[in-house]
Design a protein that fits this description.
The chain is mostly beta strands. 0% of the residues lie in helices and 54% in strands. The chain is built from no helices and 11 strands. It is globular, with a radius of gyration of 13 Å.
Length: 118
């Protein structure tokens, strides 16, 4: 199993930046991919970005392309989401997730709140 702990959320004005981090522990050596998801009040959880653990291939939702950057540090077992040019519609609870296989994510963090004021 993998345990995930997010950090770095907060309140920022529109146009600002935040850096989210996800620390993984447990059986991290078998991780295939890690991702970030978000859920705004009254909305379904949606995909934001993902990165493969070994090769570092990255994937982004259209809403994140050009503004967000996902990266990983295998030595520290962490994944980071750099968010720039934030918009009020980016306000949500952001979750880190991990999977050992292609497909659905099996492990989730508790989430970190991001609030962007206009």
């Amino acid at each position: 199993q993998v345990q995930l702990v997010e950090s770095g959320g907060g309140l920022v004005q529109a146009g600002g930046s935040l850096r989210l981090s996800c620390a993984a522990s447990g059986r991290t050596g078998s991780i295939y991919r890690m991702g970030w998801f978000r859920q705004a009040p009254g909305k379904e959880r949606e995909f934001v970005a993902a990165i493969t653990w070994s090769g570092g291939s990255t994937y982004y939702a259209d809403s994140a392309k050009g503004r967000f950057t996902i990266s990983r540090d295998n030595a520290k077992d962490t994944v980071t989401l750099q968010m720039n040019s934030l918009k009020p519609e980016d306000t949500a609870l952001y979750y880190c997730a991990a999977t050992y296989r292609f497909g659905q994510y099996d492990y989730w963090g508790q989430g970190t709140q991001v609030t962007v004021s206009s």
